[in-house]
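WARN no homologs supplied; continuing
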Amino acid sequence: MTKSPDVQELIVVTGASSGIGAATAQEMARRGYHVLAGVRREQDARDIQGPNIEPVLIDITHPDDIAALAQRIDTDPPGRALRAVVNNAGIGTNAPVEVFDLDAWRKLFEVNYFGHIAVTQKLLPALLRSKGRVINISSVGGRIAMATYGPYAGAKFALEALSDSLRRELAPSGVDVVVIEPGAVQTKISGRAIAVANNVAAAMTPEQTERYGALIHAVTAQAAAADKTGAKASVAANVVVRAITSRRPRTRYGVGREAALLGLMSLLPDKVIDWLLTAVLRRYLPKAGAEEAKPLS
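OK structure emitted
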């Protein structure tokens, strides 16, 4: 449904520099909404700017940036309501729990969890006025956590719980809360996660390398393969758009083959799931030798 210019509604999308965020911003703009596209760099702002897309420089871990975004919305012309906030910003990593530095854990949760809470809290007054929507971009990793996905999946599990609680709190006020759970999607976050995994592996002790070297190799190889065959960002964006524009949105939307399998796997005993996930990685394990056991670059 295309909006006429005089009743154009606002959409906020964080993490709009690439991937699902950029594709969502572009599709909502094409449909006639005015999109405030959150990015962290000037170059990204220049790249995303276009008809109906207004770049906003924001780091969701900085309260002043979030306050400026809220002020921008509050000073908008009368009649332009905030239709939806898409909490999409995020960073990825693959690392065993034992070797991932605690400060890195905190940074990941600041971006992938606490930052979304901060944005949602600050923009809720506008959403309550308009009876808008909160769209939280989670992951299939928010339901099932593979080995080395502890940091990333931990934040996504927390986001899933937050979304359930928030949905139940806001239902009487007419604000919908929707979770999007992508599987493998062709975005830059996968490549960045592989790079982090390689950095973590390079800093491991010999004993830790013996425990986790082959595992990290398998996980990064599997992630690289999945990235090549994953859904395009535009496919995921179309699901987000459906969640924003549907008259009666579902509470959760899956994206990709992994999301389709998730419902079936979640019915199985934990030990069976463990076996299945191990079997998936087995084909990516190095054959032999220390050199082959190194993670992919």
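Residues 1-6, 289-297 have pLDDT under 50 and may be disordered.
OK
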